[in-house]
């Protein structure tokens, strides 16, 4: 990365569960953990481990110069709760087809 900014991605052997309002939104034994300078550690879960049927696509998009353009999904009571990088930058290509939640339970 540039100017001392660093991103590392590795497979985690931890079990990650995402629960909102008592409902399990995602559960995975194969998350990726992304560590980025100045940001909290984030778990990216494979799309097949996420209850996409419960999420609604959002009109929100954000741009990160290191990861690319993020798309977001919402719940009726939680806007932009989930994001993903459909076309991530090559340096972080592993997060393609993975989704990230703001709040996760790591077991």
TrEMBL record:
Pfam families: NTP_transf_9
Domain DUF427 per the UniProt entry, residue ranges: 16-103
UniProt superkingdom: Bacteria
PANTHER family linked: CONSERVED PROTEIN (PTHR34310:SF8), DUF427 DOMAIN PROTEIN (AFU_ORTHOLOGUE AFUA_3G02220) (PTHR34310)
Protein name: DUF427 domain-containing protein
The species this protein was found in: Streptomyces tuirus
High-level lineage: Bacteria, Bacillati, Actinomycetota, Actinomycetes, Kitasatosporales
């Amino acid at each position: 990365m540039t100017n001392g900014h660093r991103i590392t991605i590795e497979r985690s052997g931890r079990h990650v569960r995402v629960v909102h309002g008592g409902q399990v939104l995602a559960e995975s034994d194969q998350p990726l953990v992304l560590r980025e300078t100045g940001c909290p550690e984030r778990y990216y879960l494979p799309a097949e481990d996420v209850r996409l049927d419960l999420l609604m696509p959002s009109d929100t998009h954000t741009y990160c110069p290191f990861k690319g353009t993020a798309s977001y999904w919402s719940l009726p009571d939680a806007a932009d709760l989930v994001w993903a990088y459909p076309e991530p930058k090559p340096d972080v290509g592993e997060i393609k087809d993975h989704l990230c939640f703001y709040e996760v339970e790591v077991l």
